[in-house]
Amino acid sequence: MSGVPMSAEEKDDACDDPGTVRPGGRTARVRAAVLRTAGDALAEHGFARLDLADIARRADVGKSTVYRRWGTVAGLVADLLSDMAEQSLPRTETGSLLGDLRANAELVRGTLADPRQGALFKAVIAAATTDARTAEALHRFYEIRVAEWAPCVEQAVRRGELPEGTDPYEVIRAVSAPLYYRLLTSDAPLDEAAGVRAAEATAAAARAGVYA
C-alpha cells in the first residue's frame, strides 16, 4: 500500500479486471472515450506507436486508470476489437442469397473504404502478424461477424438456392476476402462495383457447390 488515497475515478475502476467494464455510468463513458481515442491513434500512427500514457492524455482520462483497466497496448486493442464487434451493424435480410451477400459486401466495403476505419483495420491486421494477443482478438472479431451473417446462407439452403451441406462460414468469408485483398495489396478504389463483384462471384461459386 502506498498510503496515497485513490481518486474517485480510481476507486470506481479498482474492482474491474483490465479491459472489463460495468454497464452504464462514468465507467462506460471512460471506456468509450479511451477506445475512441485508441482507434484514432491506430488509424493515424499504427500499432507500433500506440502508447497508453498518450491515449490517457488525449482521452482526458487518468493514466493510472488506463494502465489498471487495460494493462498493455495489446489489451487495449483487444478491447477495441471487442467493442467494434459489438457495435457492428446487424445482418440484413433481403429474402434472397444474392441480396444478402450484396448487403454483407457493401457493409464490409463501406467500412474498409472509410479513411479512418480502413487505416484502423490495416494497423490491426499488421499488429496481429507479430502480437499474439492482438491476433487472438482479431480472430474473435471475425468469428463474431461471420457468425452474425452465416444464417443468410443457412436460409438459402432451406429455400433450395444452395446445395445441402454448404458451409455458411466459408461463404461469408469468401465475400469479404477480395475486399480485404484489395485494401491490403492495391491502391485501387474500394468502390461499390468491387462489392457487387465479390457478392456475385461468391453466390455463383456457392450455387455451383464450391463450398459444400
TrEMBL record:
Residues 28-88 form the HTH tetR-type domain. Residues 1-25 are annotated as: Disordered. The keyword NAD does not apply. InterPro entries: Homeodomain-like_sf, HTH-type_TetR-like_transc_reg, HTH_TetR, Tet_transcr_reg_TetR-rel_C_sf, TetR_C. Gene3D superfamilies: Homeodomain-like (1.10.10.60), Tetracycline Repressor, domain 2 (1.10.357.10). Residues 51-70 bind DNA. Keywords: DNA-binding, Transcription, Transcription regulation. This is Transcriptional regulator. It comes from Streptomyces camponoticapitis. PANTHER family: HTH-TYPE TRANSCRIPTIONAL REGULATOR RUTR, TETR-FAMILY TRANSCRIPTIONAL REGULATOR.
